[in-house]
């Protein structure tokens, strides 16, 4: 059975991100290899991964090599660091789909790179990246940056479990369980 996964902000090849986010790697090679292994540990060949932006700082050939090693059908939503390259660049590098805008998933989840303003009356959950180790609390935001998930993509089932738990803790009664 195909599973859906979500992740963001790998920053493959980006040395400075290790310092900015206190990533526990000695160098970019170790960071890249660890994140590839973590991805493939979580994601099977038949699974689908939505990457919510800021994938790689490497050239097309090196980015393509990484993508070819990653399991799953890969969709990229362009992040702020991805936008210097065209949609076709990312497709040629190895993503199966590339979106310049957000994607609505299962009619209830807004997939975006940057978190969107969501007031408590909006009926959506914004699954996002961009803010790395920071976190928005509540049922309207879900941060899938690698720093929060041990550098692995997070499954849709895990997202639903966390949101349902938050809902119970906050005493809210929304329609999460119906999604």
UniProtKB/TrEMBL annotation:
Species of provenance: Paenibacillus sabinae T27
InterPro entries for the chain: Metallo-depent_PP-like
Name this protein carries in UniProt: Metallophosphoesterase
Phylogenetic lineage: Bacteria, Bacillati, Bacillota, Bacilli, Bacillales
Superkingdom classification of source: Bacteria
């Amino acid at each position: 059975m195909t599973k859906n996964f979500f992740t963001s902000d790998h920053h493959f090849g980006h040395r400075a991100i290790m310092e900015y986010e206190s990533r526990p790697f000695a160098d970019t090679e170790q960071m890249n290899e660890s994140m590839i292994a973590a991805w493939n540990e979580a994601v099977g060949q038949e699974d689908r991964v939505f990457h919510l932006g800021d994938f790689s700082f490497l050239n097309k050939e090196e980015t393509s090599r990484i993508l070819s090693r990653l399991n799953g059908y890969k969709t990229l939503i362009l992040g702020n660091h991805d936008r210097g390259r065209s949609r076709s660049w990312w497709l040629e590098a190895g993503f199966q789909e590339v979106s310049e805008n957000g994607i609505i998933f299962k009619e209830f989840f807004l997939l975006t790179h940057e978190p969107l303003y969501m007031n408590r009356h909006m009926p959506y959950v914004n699954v996002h990246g961009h803010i790395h180790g920071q976190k928005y609390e509540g049922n309207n935001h879900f941060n899938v940056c690698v720093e929060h998930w041990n550098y692995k993509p997070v499954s849709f089932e895990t997202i639903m479990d966390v949101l349902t738990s938050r809902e119970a803790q906050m005493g809210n009664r929304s329609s999460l369980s119906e999604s």
